[in-house]
Amino acid sequence: MSFPRQLATGEYLLAAGWSSDSCHSDSSYCQWPVSGDTQQPEPLHSCVPYGPFPCKAITNIFWLTTKQGLPFTIFKGGMLWAGYGDCHCISVAHNSQQTASDFTSRVIDFTLLVEMDRAAAFDDPYAQVVLAEEELVVIDLQTAGWLQI
């Protein structure tokens, strides 16, 4: 397996992970190939979820696979500046459902709870834990509507 030495984009890189995801200051996110012997300068998938109007930066992202359907895409930021410029949001998208949760204070970080079987081929997230300045929120990803606990 070889990796490109440089993945060039025209925007500031705000976060990247070993999972081959990147998120950018122009409110876009990309999934990059990390296997194979040839270098690919283009992402496998690129999206501006709330564009084309000016949006806040996406500063953190997770893509998690599931046994049923498309992967979960969960990211912080990306909302329209007009109307959401002072909001603290995390968006969850899976299959045809997409929800943005607005928090009362700045989101410090978030993580996903996944099945613990390391031999499993899928992540299958079951909850999202969000730490904000004034609250700790757990979101049930297995219940329709993704209820906050």
From TrEMBL:
It comes from the Eukaryota. Residues 48-146 form the Lethal giant larvae homologue domain. Keywords: Repeat, WD repeat. GO terms for molecular function: GTPase activator activity; myosin II binding. Pfam families: LLGL. InterPro entries: Lethal2_giant, LLGL2. Coiled coil: none annotated. One of its GO terms (cellular component) is plasma membrane. GO terms for biological process: cortical actin cytoskeleton organization; establishment of spindle orientation; Golgi to plasma membrane transport; regulation of establishment or maintenance of cell polarity; regulation of Notch signaling pathway. This is Lethal giant larvae homologue 2 domain-containing protein. It comes from Eschrichtius robustus (California gray whale).
